[in-house]
Design brief:
Low-confidence stretches: 432-437
Structural class: alpha/beta
Number of domains: 3
Mean pLDDT: 92
Strand order of the largest sheet: 6-7-8-9-11-10
Helix content: 25-40%
CATH topology of the largest domain: inorganic pyrophosphatase (n-terminal core)
Bound molecules: manganese (II) ion
CATH superfamily of the largest domain: inorganic pyrophosphatase (n-terminal core)
Number of strands: 17
CATH architecture of the largest domain: Alpha-Beta Complex
Distance between the termini: 31 Å
CATH class of the largest domain: Alpha Beta
């Protein structure tokens, strides 16, 4: 017998991969995990017949010749299946996209799929092999791709994910169904927790980061808490959110953390409590401490261990070209052109910033052919200035509020630097936003 399976706690990308394995390799039977990830529970419930899963127990007496493993390359994550493979020396092939993880399944051959979703790789294999899918199968696979790529917007996304999604639409995938399966808050107790969290959110600014913390006591653990935390994150848009749930009955505390700033390394933060995860999503389960005490401790831990947020001074241009307010518009225009700038701060004779002149201001002078007029007659003022120590969140706010093309930064009285819209966008582009699977 040949079998295929994914990791324990099958998630949507895992199920998407498996439905395609079934069509690509019809002589393989799929084996299900004892655990379904809460995010995949609904899709599994409606579509389990399409998979025709065996249970791990069903393979105990079989002689297994070949195994395909999808969406993981870690032995511990497939231990529940391998434990049931007896009296056989199967050939193992792995198709996985977690390129940062080291494969530790002995003797296996690994195909690194390196796309945002593992399902995308198998979908393109199926397309190229001329496989035709049922609309239900295409819906399952497309849900897997959207789940692992944040609907094709995470940093892990490759053009192949789009290609795979396009092919699955051709195969009849239903976007309406995909959308409904991606909704992560479905259970009444999740909605109840969400309702109880919103009034107890506390905001803190630590090292320039806008942080959200909450503390809530629960009767018992609620499946899908992480999805609730992510929903709050979406609503409030902090740099990071730390949700602390205390379950007095079992004496445990759950810490669920989400970040959207590379500078806030959650993996490192939760390691102090024996937790795990990655840079932008991590969690820990702590026992033997009381909830309120942990909250206070954790806050102190944040104060001492967070790296400072990126400030305006970290990305500003320090060599600022300025122009004297008594120069003519023509001179200003030539200077900007020569320096390839969209604008420059204007200074008076004593060197103080008195305004800002941009190409748009110069155009106004050009219209009435007054290029000999002094810069001070056309410059915009007051200049929007800020201290170079402000955070990038404040930089963004100033750009939006004042509709400016450049933000002038000062240190004390002195001109210290400048940030253009372009600099700001470049910073946003490089900021860490990665997969949260
Ligand atoms: Mn995956």
């Amino acid at each position: 017998m040949n079998i295929a399976f994914g990791h324990s706690g099958m998630d949507l990308d895992c199920l998407g991969s498996l439905i395609l394995v079934k069509r690509l390799y019809p002589d393989f039977r799929l084996v299900r995990s004892r655990l379904i990830h809460p995010s995949a529970a609904h899709l599994y419930e409606f579509y389990k017949d399409y998979f025709d899963f065996l249970n791990p127990k069903d393979i105990e007496k079989e002689r297994i010749e070949k195994i395909i493993i999808v969406d993981t390359c870690i032995a511990q994550r497939v231990a529940e299946y391998l434990r049931c493979v007896r009296n056989s020396q199967p050939a193992i092939s792995i198709i996985d996209h977690h390129s940062s993880e080291r494969c530790d399944i002995l003797g296996a051959s690994l195909v690194e799929s390196s796309f945002g979703a593992n399902t995308s790789y198998l979908a393109l294999l199926a397309r190229d092999a001329g496989v035709r899918l049922l609309p239900e199968e295409a819906t399952i696979a497309l849900t897997g791709i959207f789940a692992d790529t944040g609907r094709l917007i995470y940093e892990n996304v490759r053009r192949e994910d789009f290609e795979a999604a396009a092919w699955l639409l051709d195969m009849g995938a239903s976007l309406k169904l995909v959308k409904s399966f991606l909704e992560t808050i479905k259970e009444d107790d999740q909605i109840e927790v969400l309702g109880r969290l919103l009034p107890v959110l506390n905001t803190f600014t630590i090292q320039g980061h806008a942080l959200l913390l909450s503390y809530l006591e629960l009767e018992e653990n609620v499946p899908g808490l992480a999805a609730v935390v992510e929903k709050v994150m979406e609503l409030q848009n902090p740099d990071a959110y730390f949700a602390i749930f205390s379950i007095p009955k079992s004496g445990t505390i759950l810490l669920i953390a989400r970040s959207q700033r590379a500078r806030i390394d959650l993996h490192e933060l939760v390691q102090a409590y024996g937790g795990g995860g990655h840079q932008l999503a991590a969690s820990a389960k702590i026992s033997g401490t009381d909830g309120p005490g942990f909250y206070v401790d954790f806050l102190a831990h944040l104060e001492t261990s967070l790296a400072p947020a990126v400030r305006a001074r970290d990305i500003m241009t320090r060599e600022v070209r300025t122009i004297n307010e008594n120069k003519s518009l023509l001179e200003a225009s030539l200077m900007l052109e020569e320096a390839e700038l969209g604008g420059a701060p204007v200074v008076n004779d004593s060197g103080e910033v008195s305004g800002f002149i941009g190409l748009k201001d110069i155009m106004k002078g050009r219209k009435v052919s007054l290029m000999k007029a002094p810069v001070k007659a056309y410059m915009s003022r007051p200049t929007v200035c800020a201290d170079s120590g402000i955070t990038m969140r404040e930089v963004e706010r100033l750009f939006y509020r004042h509709h400016i093309s450049h933000l002038v930064l000062t240190e004390g009285e002195a001109l210290a630097g400048i940030i253009s819209r372009w600099d700001y966008l470049r910073f946003q582009k490089s900021r860490g936003r990665e997969e949260l699977d």
